[in-house]
Amino acid sequence: MPPYVVAALYHFAAVPDFADLREPLHEVCARAGVRGSLLLASEGINGTIAGTREGIDTVLAHLRADARFAALEHKESRSAELPFGKLKIKLKNEIVTMGVPGIDPARIVGTYVEPRQWNALLADPEVLVIDTRNDYEVKVGSFENAVSPQTQSFREFPAYVERELRGQEQRPIAMFCTGGIRCEKATAYLREQGFERVYHLRGGILKYLEQVPEAESRWNGECYVFDERVAVGHGLKQGRTRRCEACGDPLSIEEQASADFVPGVHCPHCVGELTPERRAMLEMRRAQREAG
């Protein structure tokens, strides 16, 4: 088994003193050898961290010792190497940014659907299934028949609701995202807007890929993740998607085979945007790395 544990976590709770939590949490993570990225806000905590089994357990125990995070859930996968270069703990206005004041998943939210019951919703033609992630994530993989809002940022989701969903308040709507946080906030927003039959996948895609056997899965492709693994597949095994070092876009196997993909320099998405000066700089940097 790969030696490092990757823990994706979030929890909505009222944390008015969130800024005071940063330094003690940073100290615990650093002492435990845990790296990754965590966001703290008055509405809770969100992020992904990685480390040894002991290190991750230490950080989770520290968080859950705070009564406000006692019910915090997390999703785990494994990695052969630490998928983060450093530890970052940031203070934010929101732990997932929608930009709409007053949306509180701790107060009102959609109906949770367990991963093993999710396929029934996918098979129901009356249910509108929405992928609440951004376009570049959806490109890597998604559920059969799911609709993409084609957003570049979660801030665009309310506009999508007004443009595409208004008038369908009685229709059953099921939403999903990577780990559950975006669709949890999205369902809270829909409930606030008068939508009544709103569902979301508990634990997100990660929990689905962990619990549902591949033979029964309705998932196509891989799941984009926000660390150096880039994507995971069924059983949460590291996928074959790569990230372009020049522009950051995820690349499929087919795109990696393209003549327009030169690692560290350009890919099919950004090759046409490079100036001669930037291309020369990236090629020189690549040559320096290869030289050791």
UniProtKB/TrEMBL annotation:
Span of domain Rhodanese: 123-217
Keywords tagged on the record: Oxidoreductase, tRNA processing
UniProt GO molecular function: oxidoreductase activity, acting on paired donors, with incorporation or reduction of molecular oxygen
Highest taxon of the lineage: Bacteria
Catalytic activity: uridine(34) in tRNA + AH2 + O2 = 5-hydroxyuridine(34) in tRNA + A + H2O
Protein's GO biological process: tRNA modification
SMART domains, sorted: RHOD (SM00450)
PANTHER family: RHODANESE-LIKE DOMAIN-CONTAINING PROTEIN 7-RELATED, THIOSULFATE SULFURTRANSFERASE/RHODANESE-LIKE DOMAIN-CONTAINING PROTEIN 2
Family: Belongs to the TrhO family.
Protein name as it appears in the record: tRNA uridine(34) hydroxylase
